Amino acid sequence: MRFVDEFHDPVLAGKLANRIRTASTKPAQFMEFCGGHTHAILRYGIRDLLPPTVTMHSGPGCPVCVTSPHDIDSAIAAALIPGVIVATYGDLIRVPGSHDSLERARARGADVRVVYSALDALTIASHHPGNQVVLLGIGFETTAPTVAASILEARRRNLGNYRVLSLLKLTPPIMHALLARGETRIDGIVCPGHVSVIIGTRPYDFIPRDFGVACAVSGFEPLDILRAIDVLVEQVESGAPAVANAYSRAVTTGGNETACRLIGDVFLPCDASWRGIGTVPGSGLALRPEYAAFDAAAAFDLRVEESEEPAGCRCGDVLRGSLTPPECALYGAACTPTHPIGPCMVSHEGACAAHFAYGAAS
Description:
Blueprint: H1 10-23, E1 28-34, H2 35-43, H3 46-49, E2 54-61, H4 63-66, H5 69-79, E3 84-88, H6 102-107, E4 111-114, H7 118-127, E5 132-137, H8 144-156, E6 162-166, H9 171-181, E7 188-192, H10 193-199, H11 206-211, E8 214-218, H12 222-238, E9 243-245, H13 257-266, E10 267-274, E11 278-287, H14 296-299, H15 315-319, H16 343-346, H17 351-358
Parallel strand pairs: 1-2, 1-7, 3-4, 3-5, 5-6, 7-8, 8-9
Antiparallel strand pairs: 10-11
């Protein structure tokens, strides 16, 4: 492990790991929701520091990975419309739909451009007034305010050629759906720090209240994650699940009111399709009627044929926490970062990519 600053202190890490090993007597299965947590856990060997009583599962916290084949197919359909420029974040361009990807569509002549922010897409729209520019809005509550802000700015600047295909997802509803599903036993959840900066800790109250599951918000440094796991172990051992904030330097109970107001002003919750999970009520964000002029789904006919997962791909099982990446028959053989078959190997936040990068066997 490489520890280079106060959040990577090997002495503190050792003390935390020893405390976890000493305190943990009951079998506990924890899910780190976010792909960023998965990468940090594997990169810094955190699983190797934990006692055999503690098992970590990866969850559906990679926004690229959970984007359904149907939504990818719809994005490709938009890209193939003459005069349309599709703006997308980098990872999504390689994610397979049912039979194609945005990358392959671009190779055939579609105008697909990689952007680093929603405002980049606005710039494209202002520079190409004769084209329709469609931003593929993906991500969780962290990304949603920037997409909302781009729509408000497009309206202010009267950019009538700017549209958003909203594929945005909400975190608490999918957590509720996974816990209610009960497919994988979950004794504690490591909640994502960046999402929690926006929404605060209050939206997680249902986790201990309704499901008796421990809960801790964590940052992304090694010591952040170890502290969160330490809190989860303490809750499991005491039988007193609660919402703990192990990332108080950035997260508050109420979250960022300005960002939440932006989301609420522009979007309404809607049902959304998740790869490997299906439709989850109230887990997506759709544009409010007053912003319908910026809705790509309403502006274009994006009907696609029935979508399907890539043959043999087990990304859906990985996203639900019921399978580790090496348990997929394609992992590391037919499916690698160079030639990915599923999105969990494409995205830099994907669990399969993390396991492959850091040599995890299980």
